[in-house]
Amino acid sequence: MDKKADIRTSMKELFAQMDEAFFMDVEENVPIEMRDGNVDEEGWIKWKPLPSQITEQEIREMEEKYHFELPPLLRSFIMSYHYVSLQFDNESIPGVYWSDCTFVEFPRLPVGQGLKAFYDLLDQWSPLLSAGYIPFAIAEDDQGPVCLNAGSRHKDGDYPIVWFFHEDLQHLNEDGLRIRSNLLPHVQGLFPSSVEMFNVMFKHIRHL
Predict the structure, then answer these.
(1) Contact status, residue 200 vs residue 191, Cβ threshold 8 Å
(2) Cα Rg for the chain, rounded, in angstroms?
(3) What is the per-residue pLDDT across 106-124, written as a single tens digit (0 to 9) for each?
(4) Taken in order 152, 69, 9, 144, is the CA torsion positive or negative?
(5) Cβ contacts of residue 125 below 8 Å, gap of 6+?
């Protein structure tokens, strides 16, 4: 299966099903190429997704700088579409979200900025890399980093996905955040793999 083509198709269908409100953002966050209409009286404008210009080389450079390897589906996701903002609801049963995380938000990926927001997230939580956790998204409303658990990598190259509530880590300084044993009591599991994460994201469309 061509995962890159498949996830691009799923992303296109996801955007087609999203409520128009999700495509609204403040003017300064929306590149001219992505604008879809005029700025309203409150300074908001609708944006439109565009096919990604991110290359394999750009992703490799990020991986080499921080010494990790992304799972194939996450790489394909990054190279599928540019968006201004993107989040998806976590799995839940009535009134309860798995791992106490309502939704997951990806770093911004607008046209013309490359992987800047991914770099910013990695720099913000860089000590976690030394402990075997690779930040790639944010749990609801900036509650903490969502990470690939590199210390438990699967044989197929995928990773379990976990998150940390930022207040649980406040007692640790930068050196303390580099020690995996310090973090283990605060790890909250989200998905067994990136495949399962994207299955949740695309659950109303198809399973990858």
Answers:
(1) yes
(2) 17
(3) 999 999 999 999 999 999 9
(4) positive
(5) 135, 145, 147, 177
